[in-house]
Amino acid sequence: MELAEFFVAYLQPYLPTPVVRVLVRWYLYLFVGWRMRSGNVVVRQIKLDRQERTRAPVTTEVEVTNEQLYANDPAFFVAHLGPRLKYSACEWPVNCGASTSDPPSCAAALADAEALTLATYQERLGLASLPAGSRVLECGCGWGSLTLTNAARFPKLHFVAFSNSPQQIEYVAKTAAERGLANVSVHVEDYALFVDPATSKVAPAGCAPFDAAVAIETVEHAQNIKELLAAVAARLRPGGRFFVHSLLHQSASYLVDADSWMGRNFFTGGSIISLNSSVLCPLPPPPVEREVLSCEAREVAYDPDYSLAVRYAPLPHFRLALAVCPPGP
Q1: Looking at the record's lineage, which domain of life comes first (predicted)?
Q2: pTM for this one?
Q3: What is the pLDDT of residues 204-245, one digit of tens each?
């Protein structure tokens, strides 16, 4: 058992949160940081992204990941997440400082942070300029925060979303029906099935192309990311836009497998991409290759937004969470 794994399992539950933060920072500095700053980290990143990823399957151990992340009752996530159930980081209001705001007051801004971030996604996708009847694909829709918000705001567009979690898709379908959103279609599907039109229910062979596509902190669930992005590109109409929000590391790319404690306990089969990786921002393709993505723009969101999400978001929901999952005897 790794030191970090032992700490999380046996010590963290009994320590005050400020102490945990200090210890985690020291652990990262002493045991992790030197590896990320070593001279060959860029060489390892290039080797992984250019060689190893291209030979890897699109996804691995999907059932294990679902059990780790999504298999709880939806009421658990309703209690812990914001009002729109956004299962990824938000762009926080500028007046919500990580070091000066009182946690409860900052957590109260979670609803505003969700709304701000979802509106940013809509703007980046250009949804307001799409003609009626346009089709928009969401890869890995989570608990439906973006798809349901989009469907309500743009009733003349049709939104197709999928996730490999049956619990999530059941919740999104039920919520869409309760809200009278007839312009939503949802499917249970893994990326490994999606990339092949012969096995995909979301975008089978011969289906109409999509006018836009979006993936919010979900390409990290794929290992062969290049194949996944190529599959999305093949489903877009010429000139269609694909917006990706991804969790990146400053310098390192790595696969999350059973060799690490995170892989064993939390994120089996996942992968982390580095900021300078060519996987998400490839070189422009030759003119003859239409079904390949080219990078239009890239914007970096710095660490404080993620820190705020981790530090403050769950606090106002703590009592509700206890009601959903009461402590054991």
Answers
A1: Eukaryota
A2: 0.82
A3: 999 999 999 999 999 888 888 888 988 999 999 998 999 999
The set of long-range contacts for 116-124, using a CB threshold of 8 Å and a minimum separation of 24, is 116/90, 116/91, 116/92, 117/86, 117/90, 117/91, 118/84, 118/86, 118/145, 118/146, 118/149, 120/91, 121/146, 121/214, 121/216, 121/243, 121/245, 122/149, 122/150, 122/153, 122/154, 124/243
Rounded mean pLDDT, 298-304: 64
Q: Is the pLDDT of residue 287 over 60?
A: no
Q: State how far the alpha carbon of 328 is from the alpha carbons of 67, 77, 322, 323, 325, in Å.
A: 21, 19, 11, 12, 9
| Better-scored residue on pLDDT, 122 or 289 | 122
Q: From 3.30.9.10, 3.40.190.10, 3.40.50.150, 3.40.605.10, which CATH number describes the 38-87+117-304+318-324 domain?
A: 3.40.50.150
State CA 297 to chain mean position distance: 19
Give the separation between CA 114 and CA 1, rounded to whole angstroms: 37
